[in-house]
Amino acid sequence: MREGAFFWGLLALAAYGAVAAVARVAGLLARIRLAEERVAYVVLVRDQAEWLEDALSRLARQVDAELVLVDLGSRDESAAMLSRLARRLGLAPVLELGHLPRSEAVARAAAAASATRVVVVDLNGELEKEG
User: Fold this and answer.
1) pLDDT digits over 19-50, tens only?
2) What superkingdom does the record give (predicted)?
3) Angle between helices 49-62 and 78-89 in degrees, nearest 10
4) Beta strands across the sheet bearing 66-71
5) Backbone angles phi, psi at 3, to 5 degrees
6) In degrees rounded to 5, what are phi and psi of residue 117?
7) What Rg do the C-alpha atoms of the chain give, in angstroms?
C-alpha cells in the first residue's frame, strides 16, 4: 500500500514539474516576442519649421525604429523641410494630411506604419502617448 502512495506522489511531483517547465517556456517565448516587436514613432508637425531640422535629426539619432513624419497642413516651410529631411535620413515619404483632428492623423499614420506598435512623439523627443 505504501508503494502505491509513493508512486502517486512521484507522479504528482513529475506532473507539477512538467507544468512549471511549460509555464517557464511560455513566459520566455512571450518575452522574445515583445523584444522582437517593431515600433514606429509618429511625429505630427504643423508650422514648426524654425526648429524642425534640429529636433528631427536628434530624434533620428536617438531611436532605432521606423519614423513616420506627418504634416498637418503647415502654412510655413515645414512640409518641404520634412520631405528634405525624410530623403536625407532615408525615411519613408512624408504624409501630408492637411488639417485633421489629432486622433484621425494618428490613426492614418499608424495605418501607414509597418510596425506593430505606434508611439506618438512631440518634437522635443518626449514620449506623448502610446497606442
Assistant:
1) 777 777 777 666 665 556 788 888 888 888 88
2) Bacteria
3) 20
4) 95-96, 66-71, 39-45, 117-121, 127-130
5) -65, -35
6) -130, 140
7) 25
